[in-house]
Amino acid sequence: DCEFQLNGTTIFTVSASPPSPIVFKCIMGPVNSSAGEVEVLVREKNEGLAPSLEDKLLDIFVPNRTFSLLTTVEDMSIFSGTAAGGDVITVRGFGFMQTNQYVMSFYHSAGESQSVECIFVNPQRILCETSTWNFAARTVRTSFSASLGFLIDRDFTFTFRPAVVTLASSSKSSAGVPSIVLVQGHGFSPGSAYQCIFFVDPPCGDSTCASDSAMLRQYASHVAHRTGEAINASIIKCITPSWQFPASNVSLNVTLAGDRIPGDPLPFRFLAEMFSMNPSHGILQGTSITIKGAGLKDYSNYSCSMKDKDFVQYAPARVTLLNFTRLMPGKYFNFELVCEIPPIRSCDAFLIEVRVVDLGSGEVIKGLFDFEYTEGLLSVAPSAGPATGNLKVTLVGCGFHKNGQYAASFRDTASPSHFRLSGNASFINSSAVEVIFPYWPFGSALAAVGLKIDENVEDTSANVAFNIFPVATSYLPRSGSVFGSYLLVQGHGFTDSDGFHVCLLQSQTNSSEMLEVDAFARGGATELECEISRWPFATSFVNVTLLYGKHREVIPQLEGLQITYHLVSAWLVADLAPISIFSGGTPITIRGGGFNPDGGPIYTCHFTVANQGSCPVKSISQENGFGILDSDCTQAHSSDPSLPLHLRGPYVATSKEFVVCWTPAWLRSAETTVALKLYEGSRLVEKFYVPKLVTTTFVGGPVVGAGSTTNAHAEGNAMIIISGDNYGFADMSPRARLGQTACSFTEWHSNTQVSCRAPTGIVGATVDLLITIGPYRLGTLSDFFTFDGPTIRRVDNPLSSQVTARVRSTASESSSWQSDSKILSKTAEVALAPNSTS
What is the pLDDT of residue 799? Predict the structure, then answer.
């Protein structure tokens, strides 16, 4: 038997086979032992000896009986790993010694090699951990060595794969500014192209993916690529892509030929940033600014923060997302943000800082801009003026200089060709200058006020408005008919657009009575004509208010001017017959408009000879207030005493459309055509539409009727009754005559009866009965009246009842006494000769 001992310990025993006299072989199999110097002991077996000798081994002397037991390497657990190192390789074999120091070497070339020390585990296994491979990733040869030797080496191959470790540059960048990103790792191939992939969400729903191809197929929607290049084995240089999405935290992966390079996704952040602001200066009233940049969220609310030296203001921002567009070299934008710069707060706050704030998160977006207000206007005072001009206007603004040459321009915003320039301004202080608003020869306007800084510079960007309004300076006529008239107003600034103006007429006595009519500009901007339609109310003095524009602004009137218009009544027709009885009393209904039935003016109908003309009023009746015409006029009126009190004027209107009066007696020459005229108090009421005179002819005279007293005693002084017609509705001083002799006294009783005291006459004489009224009216009944002889005035009561009455010589057939003044008798028939006395 051969017995192998290491350090006095048997590690293996084997029988020699086959034995021979001079040679035997002992074949040592696998030994679960460390390598080292092994001693070989040979013992002869005493087989077949006495039992007491069977177990006794006889040592056989063997010269040079020690030999080296060497370690062998059989296999490795892995054959690839990352260039970042840290991969643990289990090396399996036999005879590993705890006291031996093993080294594993990786070799590609003389300049690309490195070694790592291994750790003893047991005689069959050692552990080797890879260190950083500082060269390009590739497949290399491996070898092993031991500090004490006793090693039989064996070559293997090992593949280093590149690995991403961290970022060697900033981990954030603007979404719209391409910037360099240095990816640090190991095993990169210098000059080779790598894909840098920036994405928002882990595409696989986990930090690791089943395969790189699966990762590429499932990456999130917010992803951007850019090709990078390895500048050495440990650095890849990438340029950030244009990040077209909202600024956010993202992850960065690196791939090579479509395969992901091992390593955890690198954290990176795309920042929102403002790149430009336009304009960077503007008018004092504020203006819109547009800020361009990248990385904003379309679902967030943003505000512009505007800070001057003392105060911060905020204004809401409107965001519009766009496609990425090159703004300037190295900068791209994909949004525009619009804010309104407020009016300047004070003249010493010319410069403000503009930032953008995310109201949702409170984040101040990167980017700061300066906005500077420019010299100019803020406002004017007053902000309106009359077209007549000559008005002091203060221009309020900032930055005025004492020696500056300033003026103000006034330009119609609707008609820019309508333009006027003031004279040079008077300096007040750095915030105000004063100009004189000039005469404005055009229509009313909303004018834009510009600041003329010198002869060649005019700043109209301030958007300061000045309202130029029209002014009324005079008007005519002063009155017009209620059936329609016109009013011509003179002034300045009336627009030449028809329908732009309105005349509002309002009664001075009853404010609820008003009429609104259109007005039209005439003669350019200096005349305005109000076409007054029918006034549906009573005659009245009205105040006229002029309005203009869509907002019905009042046109002011020159100081001291009050447009007052008298809307006067007028009449149209009267039911006056062409022939009228001279004695009057015929009702006349006059139809017109503007009459006042409510205790207003009084009305009188006048009749004048048609060809006499106007026949003016000379005085006013103190009794009733109507007008008395010139005494030279041949006239009569319905208020004179020829009418009874219940018919006599003056009258009040029965309504706004009607006045009723009665014809007076016309005691002038007969067959004269007279015209009807209506007076309202002392004013002649005009006839409207058809100015033709309404005329009538007063005809006829008093009519003596047959029922009048036919005889009276010739001694006279008897009262006789004259019946008839047309004696007048009032006492018109009629005169009665019997023949050629007037009654000593005539008394009017009615239109159909007068009485008179008969004059003396000739007994038996038959005369005409005549009535005269005035010098031209005569009525007569020929051969109608007879003067009687002696008359029995009284018969006393006779003592007897026998009374006899005679006519001439003929006694009556019978007589009877009734009273001392009455006897009844039945006369006999008497044949009277013509012209005989009764």
Answer: 64
pLDDT at 214 (0 to 100): 47
Q: What DSSP letter does each residue of 225-289 carry, written as one string?
A: EEEEEEEETTEEEEEPPP--S---EEEEEEEETTEEPSSPPEEEEEEPEEEEEE-SEE-TT--EE
The H helix count followed by the E strand count for the chain is 2, 74
440: buried, middle or exposed (CB in 10 Å: 19+, 13-18, 0-12)?
Answer: buried
| Dihedral over alpha carbons 54, 55, 61, 63 (to 10 degrees) | 120
Nearest of 493, 443, 503, 495 to residue 472 by alpha carbon: 493
Quick one: tokens of 727?
A: 């004696």
CA-to-CA distance for 838 and 829, rounded, in angstroms? 13
Q: Exposed, middle or buried, 446 (CB in 10 Å: 0-12/13-18/19+)?
A: middle
* For residue 641, cis peptide bond before it (omega within 30 degrees of 0): no
Q: Which pLDDT does position 822 carry in this prediction?
A: 80
Task: Specify the 3-state DSSP secondary structure of 15.
Answer: coil
Contact 175, 271 (CB under 8 A): yes
Contacts 24+ apart (CB under 8 A), 507-511: 507/537, 507/540, 507/541, 507/542, 508/540, 508/541, 508/542, 508/543, 508/564, 509/540, 509/541, 510/537, 510/540
Whether the CB-CB separation of 728 and 748 falls below 8 Å is answered with yes
pLDDT band, residue 217 (cuts 50/70/90): very low
Query: Residues 384, 429: contact at Cβ < 8 Å?
Result: no
The sheet with strand 139-146 has its strands ordered as 80-82, 156-161, 139-146, 102-109, 112-122, 125-129, 88-94, 71-76, 151-152
Half-sphere exposure of 702 (CA within 13 A, CB side): 34
| Mean pLDDT of all residues in 576-598 | 91
φ, ψ of residue 214 in degrees (nearest 5): -65, -40
Instruction: Give the tokens for residue 279.
Output: 């304009």
pLDDT at 704 > cutoff 90: yes
Q: What is the 3-state secondary structure (H, E, C) of 704-755?
A: ECCCCCCEEECCCCCEEEEEEECCCCCCCCCEEEECCEECCEEEEEECCEEE
Eight-state DSSP code of residue 408: E
- Write b or e for each residue in 744-772: b if 16 or more Cβ atoms lie within 10 A of its Cβ, otherwise e: eebebeebebbbbbbbebeeeebbebbbb
Average pLDDT (293-311) is 88
Tokens of 408: 């103000």
Strand-strand pairing, 235-239 and 266-271: unpaired
Structure token pair of residue 391? 């008005």
Residue 764 one-letter amino acid: G
Average per-residue pLDDT for the chain: 86
At residue 12, what is the residue type?
F
- Token pair listed for 233: 């084995």
The pLDDT of residue 553 is above 50: yes
pTM: 0.53
